[in-house]
Each structure stands twice: as C-alpha cells, then as structure tokens.
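Let's do one together. I've listed all components of the complex below, 343 residues spread over two lines.
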Amino acid sequence: MSGIAFHFGDSLINISRMSDFAAGWCESFTMKEAEPRPNRAAQFPFRHERVDFLKPSAMPNIQTQGTEEVHPDVLLVNRARQGDVQAYEKLVKQYDRQVFRIAQHITQNREDAEDVVQDAFLKAYEKLDQFQGNSKFYTWLVRIAVNESLMRLRKRRTGRMVSIDEDVETEEGSMPRDLADWGPDPEQQYGQSELADILRKTIHGLPPGFRTVFVLRDVEGLSTEETAEALGLSVPAVKSRLLRARLQLRERLSRYFRKNKRDGAK
Amino acid sequence: MTCTEFIAQLDDLLEDRVSATLRAELDEHLRTCEHCVITMSTTRKTIEIYRSHELYELPNDLRARLQKAILAKCKKC
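Okay, and this is what the predicted structure of the assembly comes out as:
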C-alpha cells in the first residue's frame, strides 16, 4: 500500500512555523499507514516515512482492499470528488453536529464553533483528493476541525500559541487525592440547566490537550486509535492523557457531587 | 498491587480490556482499598455523565444556515 497523508492546507503550515509544538503537528502529517484494518491497533504510532504531498503519486485515489467492505462515507466521498455536491451534503448532515460539539469544547466560544464548522467542511471539500480510503472520513474530518479549533482558540488568546500539548506535563491528575464518594444519582442534586453549566464549566477547566482527548474518546466515542490519528498523537500519549483527563474531571466534579455528611460520607 | 499500579490500569479496567489474571489482581486490590473503589466508581460516573448529556446542541435553524453556507461555498469551488 502506498503511503497516506493528511494535509490541512496553508493555515496549518503557517502554524507549524510558529512553534516547536507545531513542528510535532507538522511531523504528524507525514504519516504512513502501514497495514490495512482490522489490525489498526498494531500500527500506532506510525510515523515512519515522509511523504511529499505535492507529488501526484503521493495522493493516490481511494483504494479498496479486495473484498473488504467499503464504508458508505467512502462512496459519498468518491461521488463528491466527481463534483456531486449532494453527496457531500449527506456527509455534512451526517457529521455537522459532532464537528460543532468538538469545536465548542475546544474553542469554548459559540461564534468560533460556527466558523469552525464552516471552515472545516469547506477545507475538507477542497482537500478531498488528499483523503485516503484507509482512514475513516470522519476521523480525517475531525482532525481538520481540531486544527481549525486550535487556531481559533489561539486567536482568542491574543495570539498566544495554543497547542494540544499545552499544560499536559503537569503532575495534577496523575494520582487521585480526593476520597469523597458520590451519591448514587449525583445528577439528581441539580436541575438540567444547572447540571449542564457545571459539566461545561468543569470540562473547560481542563488543559486543551486533556479536554480534546476526553471529548473525542468519551463524548464523541472515537476509539483510542482514531483519537490518536485525529490528534497526531501516539496511542500511549492518548491513553496517558485520557486517564489524567478522567481523573481530573472526576476530582473537579467531586466538589459538586460528593455525598453530604448527613448522607454518611466518611 | 499499589494504588499507583491500580490507577495505571483503571482505563482498561473501566473498558473491560484486562486479562482474567490482571482482573483478579485488580479485584484483590479493590477488596482492601476504599480509595481505589471510590476512584473507580466516581471515574465511571464521570464518563457516564458526560456521555449522557449533550452540552452543545446545534439548533435546527443554525444548523440549516450553516449547511446552506457550506454547500454554497462548495458549489463555487
């Protein structure tokens, strides 16, 4: 199988020139997927070979693997690449809610999330020729959306670089400290609106690198391998960040959900 | 097994991806460690709460507007 690549256009390349972190991102765009599914877990990390994206030979058509079932998205992508906008409309309608949620979680800003939805789908459409059939379209789209979101977040922070690696080296969350147990139905202590505010506020308190991994894995349901692929991280890095994100969230939510003393908390 | 070793396996345990041998070791640790019992149960609840609450819904009118804008731009490509 020829090498595959994920390429996100000029805006991403610009970021890659601005910091060491982005060099890591940039490096991750030169990935090669070594083997077809189902043995995907064995492929990661798969930063093996640099690919020159500008060479036509580096961007082969979507391939199918013999009798391997072709994902319906791949069929829609093939039609869209031939100019069928209605086929692309189906992909937009299938994934716009997810992209919006991811963008909101990362940017924490409604307007930015709306812009990310538009820009991510447009950029994906423009780059359809670079999409490879041995990666899920949704994972590829999420990767674009995450990068667009991080760029928006950076702009909001007056130009300060924001990366998926930000604040992930802290020791917080590596070992739980709070022994407080929760009640059997902690959500019942709050109304729906108040609970939603608590959940939003709590997850927003996580560093972007933890927040994004948690959202992709636990909220959006991507596999560990897909999350790694979408974020340009290794599988061990995703696992490490997911564990720490979960533990930090748990500890922060304990402020709201811990049993009252009268309920018998020790 | 120490608490640190237990926590290192927590995600795999929550996702039921541990071998029978390892699970037995983890269960043995849980029998004697209230701290890890609470950590595991509340971490599981954390995940369940976030999975069951959609925090950012895309309203239908906004969704329609975004779809229209995206497709209009695509047609110009």
